[in-house]
Automatic annotation (TrEMBL):
A Pfam family hit: Peptidase_M7
Recorded family membership: Belongs to the peptidase M7 family.
GO biological process: proteolysis
Protein name: Extracellular small neutral protease
Residue spans of biased composition, Polar residues class: 146-164
Enzyme's top EC category: hydrolase
UniProt GO MF annotations: metalloendopeptidase activity; zinc ion binding
Keywords, sorted A to Z: Hydrolase, Metal-binding, Metalloprotease, Protease, Signal
Catalytic activity: Hydrolyzes proteins with a preference for Tyr or Phe in the P1' position. Has no action on amino-acid p-nitroanilides
InterPro entries reported in the protein's UniProt record: MetalloPept_cat_dom_sf (IPR024079), Peptidase_M7 (IPR000013)
Amino acid sequence: MFVRKFARLIVGALVMMLAMVGAQVAAANAAPEVPADDTVAARTLYYDASRAAEFVDVVHRAAEIWNNSVRNVQLQRAQPGRPVNIVVYADNGWPRAQPTSLGNGRIWMGRQAVNQGHDPTRIAAHELGHILGLPDNRTGRCSDLMSGSSAPASCKNAQPSPQERAQVERNFSRGAVAPAMAARYAEDRDYTALANTAHAA
Ligand SMILES: [Zn+2]
């Protein structure tokens, strides 16, 4: 009698152990947990530099600078079958950007500023900054990317300042309210961002 009862207990314990192991295996195979906010994948914007003529490499370099500067948004070269967010052109005018919404718009790499000695990589990074939601900020400081041509033409800095990086991170953080881009850039004349389509290629 005692032996049988003991055997039943053993069997019962084994069944329970197997059930627990089974539950652990099931948990291990379950889908990963939803990542915390700071590990959410960056928003990817696709840019087309194929129409930027002699500035193609400069545009790629400027995109790389932004990719190394911020986490919440990344710029990748346009790929077949993917929507394009940013198209970059080259012309003989003044450099300018035409943001249509946060992360979307057109850029013109204007030769006029380049011919006046302004650094092409700084111009490209500055115009991408507009697409990423940064306004002009005419501080005259070379350390500011968005100071544009208010800094001396000799300024070669194409790196966004810590404040500019932080603003872009905020613009592309989860739940951020997109700025009213068109209104913001209506009167921008400094490596300019345009609100109208007058210069659209
Ligand atoms: Zn500007």
